[in-house]
Amino acid sequence: DDEVKVRVLTGSRTVVVSYNTDDVTVAMNLRVPASYPLRTIDVAEDEASRKLRGGIREDQWRMWLLKMTIMLFSQNTTLWKCVLLWCGNLARHFSGVEPCPICYSIVSPANQRLPEMRCQVCKNSKFHSLCLLKWFKSAGNNSCPICRSPWY
Fold first, then answer.
1. Which residues form the RING-type domain (predicted)?
2. With 0-12 CB in 10 A as exposed, 13-18 as middle and 19+ as buried, what is 37?
3. To pair with 89 at 20 to 30 A between CA atoms, which of 27, 98, 104, 119?
4. What's the domain range around 85?
C-alpha cells in the first residue's frame, strides 16, 4: 500500500513530500524562495531519505528532480502536478516498470504516458513515443537509440 504525505513548513517556505511503500520511504523538499516567481522553486532530495532511496539509481533520481525543476520553471506547471508526476514515477518504479532510456522517466513529463515503444530488432527497453520523435529528429535518422538498427 502506497502512502503520500505532504507537509507545509510555512516558516521555511518548504513543502516536504514523502512517499512510503512497504518498507521504503523517500522524500523531497520543494523550497519556495521569498522572491518567487522571480526565482525558481528549489527541488531537492530530503537529506534524511538520501541513504534509503529504495534501489533508485542516482542518475534516475537526479533526472526526476531535474524534470520537476524544468516543469516548474519553464512550463507554467503547478507544484501539485510535479508532486503527482514524482509519485507516479515512484509507484511505477516500485511496481517494476522500467524507465525510458532516453529521458530516464517512467511517466512522461510531457503527456503523463508510460514507455510503450519497443525496438523490433533488439527488443530492449521501451521508450516514450515523444522521446523517440525527439531522438529521431536530433539523430537525423530513424534508428534505435540502443542498437542503432533502423526503426520499423
1. 100-148
2. exposed
3. 119
4. 2-96
pTM of the model: 0.70
Whether residues 16 and 86 share a domain: the answer is yes
Cα separations (Å) of 103 from 12, 15, 60? 32, 26, 9
Count up the domains in the chain and report the number.
Answer: 2
Q: Domain check: are 43 and 67 in the same one? A: yes
Residue with cell 521569498: 34
CA distance 132 to 119: 11
Domain presence at residue 32? yes
Question: How far apart are alpha carbons 4 and 80 in whole angstroms?
Answer: 12
> 59 and 12 in one domain?
yes
Between CA 17 and CA 27 the distance in angstroms is 5
Same structural domain for residues 74 and 119? no
Tens of pLDDT along 33-56? 999 888 888 998 877 666 666 678
